[in-house]
Design a protein that fits this description.
Layout (H helix, E strand, L loop, with lengths): L4 E4 L9 H9 L6 E6 L11 H10 L4 E6 L7 H6 L4 E5 L6 H10 L3 E6 L17 E5 L13 H15 L5 E5 L7 H7 L3 E4 L1 H4 L4 H11 L2
Parallel strand pairs: 1-8, 2-3, 3-4, 4-5, 5-6, 6-7, 7-8
Length: 219
């Protein structure tokens, strides 16, 4: 994939004007909707669940990239698929039988991915990479938006890109946390394919222009 995809994080959207923000993404240069689901156990925050995602799906014209920051995600895969998830990513740290969970996601008709916390080494994915449509590398500690990007991310992306290329795979690398137009190009050069941005986009005076500027920074 030559063009890096942009996936605005709906966690930072205005939930009093959710349809407006969904339509803004539809009409912007963004590629996906990134949807963070938090359970208050795996991470110290609670976000939203199936009804909100189903509401987004009714208006979204771009794929829903659903990131499950929850314990034992295998309990809810079918439900998230049924309300409109196109891609489902689960944390390596959250499920005991990762291969089985990824198979469950595929069987539900979605593309399957794995997420790594900030300090989880990419080496844990060596044997599961062929099963992954995408690997999401957290560039912050998960659970809250608006955090500062951690520099260790670049090294992890380079290592993961080398692993993917060595195995001859097309697995995408997604980055989530603290992404702006100041680090987007460097992430692309390290090997990233998908960039998630939340507060940077939705707290901007003009989110549509901010997405366009982020796209321009990747040229």
């Amino acid at each position: 994939m030559s063009q890096v995809l942009i996936a605005p994080s709906m966690l930072a959207a205005d939930f009093g004007n959710l349809q407006r923000d969904v339509e803004m993404i539809n009409n912007s240069e963004a590629d996906w909707f990134h949807i963070d689901v938090m359970d208050g156990h795996f991470v110290p925050n609670i976000s939203y669940g199936m009804p909100v995602i189903e509401a987004m799906k009714k208006h979204a014209t771009k794929p829903l990239d659903v990131h499950l920051m929850i314990e034992k995600p295998e309990r809810y895969i079918e439900e998230f698929a049924n309300v409109g998830a196109d891609i489902i990513t689960v944390h390596h740290e959250s499920t005991v039988h990762l291969h089985r969970t990824l198979t469950q996601i595929e069987d539900a008709g979605c593309k399957a991915g794995v997420v790594l916390n900030l300090t989880t080494p990419v080496s844990v994915l060596e044997d599961i990479l062929p099963k992954c449509f995408m690997v999401l590398i957290m560039s912050i500690n998960p659970g809250f938006g608006g955090q500062k990007f951690e520099e260790i991310t670049y090294q992890k992306v380079r290592k993961l890109r080398a692993m993917i290329d060595e195995q001859g795979l097309d697995t995408l690398i997604e980055i989530d946390g603290g992404v702006t137009n100041n680090n987007a190009q460097k992430l692309k050069e390290a090997g990233a394919n998908v960039l998630v941005a939340g507060s940077y986009i939705f707290r901007a005076e003009n989110p549509t222009n901010t997405i366009a500027n982020l796209r321009q920074s990747l040229v």
